[in-house]
Design a protein that fits this description.
176 residues, alpha+beta, Alpha-Beta Plaits, 2 domains, 3-stranded mixed β-sheet, 5 helices, elongated
Length: 176
């Protein structure tokens, strides 16, 4: 979700910057007594002064603005996956952690090393690790259980501070 937040924030910042630049230019032109560059602010001001809260235009415009505001609020307050996964330590006062992306690459490698797995990807979130592996085997048999066992074994060896629930799915694809 971090990428989505960054994209939304960047686009919003660009829109705000564009509005600020246009507003600045319009203010300078108005103070110099020149005609408006983009917006005729006097005509807009006169139109807005004549409208009331009961006007249909005002209500129609309020709905998308409110929806956009709520969406931005939800994007801002939604918790993203933790960037680090804390690990247990035998030494008091010493804490260890592994970066979530590193854990995902590590688990992908473990799953991908199982015989019969052609490729694997992993995702780690709050209290869980998901593995999606693909195979070209006609009959994968117990491949899902073997991958899950390997993943759980490595996760237990890492000793995460909070237990991580592992889920594995195997996608069968045609060999080329």
């Amino acid at each position: 979700m971090r990428a989505t937040n960054r994209i939304v924030a960047t686009l919003l910042a660009l829109v705000i910057l564009a509005v600020a630049v246009v507003t600045f230019v319009e203010i300078v032109l108005a103070s110099l007594g020149k005609s408006p560059w983009v917006l005729d602010h006097t005509a807009i001001a006169q139109d807005l002064h004549q409208r009331t809260w009961q006007d249909g235009f005002v209500r129609v415009m309020a709905v998308p603005v409110a929806v956009l505001g709520l969406l931005l609020l939800l994007v801002g307050i939604k918790r993203s996956a933790p960037s680090d996964v804390p690990l247990d330590s035998d030494v008091d006062g010493v804490t260890f952690s592994v970066a979530r992306k590193s854990l995902e690459r590590f688990i992908s490698g473990i799953a991908g090393a199982e015989p019969g797995v052609d490729s694997a990807t992993a995702s780690a979130g709050r209290g869980r690790v998901g593995v999606r592996a693909s195979t070209t085997l006609q009959d994968p048999g117990d491949l899902e259980e073997r991958v899950k066992s390997a993943v759980i074994g490595r996760l237990e060896a890492l000793r995460p501070a909070q237990p991580l629930k592992a889920s594995v799915s195997i996608d069968r694809r045609e060999s080329s």
